[in-house]
Design a protein that fits this description.
Blueprint (H helix, E strand, L loop, with lengths): L1 H28 L3 E7 L10 H11 L3 E7 L10 H24 L6 E4 L2 E5 L2 E2 L2 E2 L4 E6 L1 H9 L3 E4 L2 E3 L5 E3 L2 H11 L4 E6 L13 E3 H7 L7 H12 L4 E6 L5 H7 L6 E4 L4 E5 L5 H15 L6 H6 L4 E6 L2 E10 L22 E9 L8 H15 L4 E6 L3 H6 L3 E3 L6 H4 L9 E6 L1
Parallel strand pairs: 1-2, 1-11, 2-8, 3-8, 11-13, 12-14, 18-19
Antiparallel strand pairs: 4-7, 5-6, 9-10, 13-14, 15-16, 16-17, 17-18, 19-21, 20-21
């Protein structure tokens, strides 16, 4: 009985912790429009369909959902009448499966299939007749917004009629970008039965639009998906998520945790490198306490942080500080007449600053974040006419050497820094000319 009670307490603690972590994102996502693109494989019979329950949860807490089926149809090649009819039948079959699963877990009639697209046939290009392949010419915006506001979830078909009433096939991406161009969509979420990250060894979980463009030319296996994300970004969608529905809860973890579990391509600020402000003070203090005991970082209290806040630079992810470093000026800013650089005599150097309190949260280490911070700080130091920077470390000697810092003895330090050097701590001192 005692063991069972402990397990219940642990489960309650985990539930409470996870809910606290998720709550800011739940609030942030309310009334946002999400385009959900479903790969055809997601609705096959052998797959578990728990992700439908997760989609319903999003819908119930106030997210506006528009579903689009991706049949991997390309409109860059001709589509004959038989292919057109087969694609329309496949899309109708997927709609029926999705509708059945939706209402299996939901008694409310709040899912609607629409076809609000105006199409423009591709016609004949360079002597090639594209037959029933088309592009989206426009979308009837007026009916969509009221439906979303009335909490309808919408299934949008990937085919439409020309002005003459003939049905034409459209690509799922073309439909998604057309909707995004007409109404503001906050996210495009692509659901599949495989993980895009496993198809490339050098792929991080978060890609800026710039990084995505570079990868699209080098990673052939994932190039089509990345190019789709780039097109979606250009249409105005700020964030594109690729998720594997075989991972239970992937959709919720992606949206309601800071780091997610899928691949994110973003066209807005995800990681923000900035000068610390008052909102960062408590996060910096929390970072220091997180690794103070294990990494021998000098302990700083709240008073120290507040007094020196303007010297701190932070990396924020989703408005949470995940790394920090401070640049403390040590000299008086006057340029010395002569510096003997060959003998490493920097004792009299006045244009000097110390990099201190360089911390990356353990969860985000080995991701290059410290390098981004140090490079940014070096650039800021140059703007302040600082010619040398120093750093003291107990454990990260190799890291500083890899970043062009050279070791010196305590006697080489400027006098102002000599006064605070702790010989008992026995930190290694590095300097770098910038």
């Amino acid at each position: 009985m005692e063991k069972k009670n402990k397990m219940n307490q642990l489960n309650n603690h985990n539930f409470a912790h996870n809910l606290r972590v998720a709550s800011p994102y739940i609030v942030e996502h309310q009334n946002k429009v999400f385009l959900i693109m479903l790969n055809e494989s997601t609705l096959k019979e052998q797959n578990e369909h728990k992700f439908i329950e997760d989609l319903l949860l999003l819908h119930r807490i106030g997210n506006h959902l528009i579903f689009i089926a991706d049949l991997n149809q390309s409109t860059e090649q001709p589509i004959d009448k038989q292919q057109r009819d087969e694609l329309i039948d496949r899309e109708q079959e997927l709609w029926q499966k999705f509708q059945a699963l939706w209402f299996k877990h939901n008694q409310k009639a709040d899912l609607l299939k629409t076809n609000l697209l105006q199409v423009r046939p591709n016609g004949v290009k360079s002597g090639k007749d594209f037959l029933y392949a088309a592009k989206v010419q426009g979308i009837f915006n007026a009916p969509i917004q009221p439906l979303l506001e009335q909490q309808w979830a919408i299934w949008q078909s990937c085919w439409g009629h020309s002005f003459s009433g003939v049905p034409y096939i459209l690509s799922a991406l073309d439909v998604a970008t057309a909707i995004a161009s007409t109404i503001h969509c906050d996210k495009l979420i692509y659901l599949d039965t495989k993980s895009i990250q496993t198809q490339s060894q050098n792929l991080s979980n978060n890609l800026s639009l710039y990084q995505a463009k570079k990868i699209s030319t080098t990673e052939k296996a994932i190039a089509p998906a990345i190019k789709m994300a780039i097109s979606a970004c250009k249409s105005g969608i700020q964030r594109i998520h690729f998720l594997n529905i075989q991972q239970d809860g992937a959709l919720l973890c992606e949206l309601f945790t800071r780091d997610g579990v899928g691949l994110l391509v973003y066209n807005d600020i995800y990681d923000e490198l900035m000068i610390a402000d008052e909102s960062c003070a408590n996060d910096i203090l929390e970072l220091i306490h997180t690794i103070n005991e294990s990494d021998n970082i000098l302990n700083r209290n709240k008073d120290f942080i507040d007094k020196n806040l303007s010297n701190f630079y932070v990396m924020r992810r989703e408005n949470k500080v995940i790394a920090c470093a401070a640049l403390h000026p040590l000299g008086n800013g006057k340029k010395p007449n002569q510096i003997n650089k060959t003998s490493k005599e920097i004792t009299q150097l006045t244009e000097i600053a110390e990099i201190a309190c360089l911390i990356v949260h353990p969860q985000y280490q080995s991701m290059g974040i410290a390098s981004q911070l140090i490079n940014h700080i070096v650039q800021q130091a140059k703007k302040q006419n600082i010619s040398h920077i120093i750093a003291l470390t107990v454990k990260a000697q190799g890291w500083f050497q890899r970043h062009n810092f050279k070791p010196i003895s305590p006697q080489k330090l400027p006098q102002i820094s000599n006064k605070v050097y702790d010989y008992q701590r026995n930190a290694t001192i590095f300097y770098r000319e910038i």
